[in-house]
Fold this sequence. Notes:
The chain is mainly α. It has helices at residues 7-24, 26-30, 37-47, 52-63.
Amino acid sequence: MTYINTIGGINNFxxxxxxxxxIYFIPSIxxxxxxxxxxxxxxxxxxxxxxxxxxxxxxxxxFKK
Length: 65
């Protein structure tokens, strides 16, 4: 039996996915009231995985009001 096939394993796996998704989209969550919110979301979605893109969108969301 694999780890993900157990009831506790599925629950644990889903919580990890949820938490990692929230961390990944922190710049979009912070910038939701920004006038450039769509651009922040798109850059975060497509370039956030690079690390540099995530940091850039985070700075953009925090300092550009």
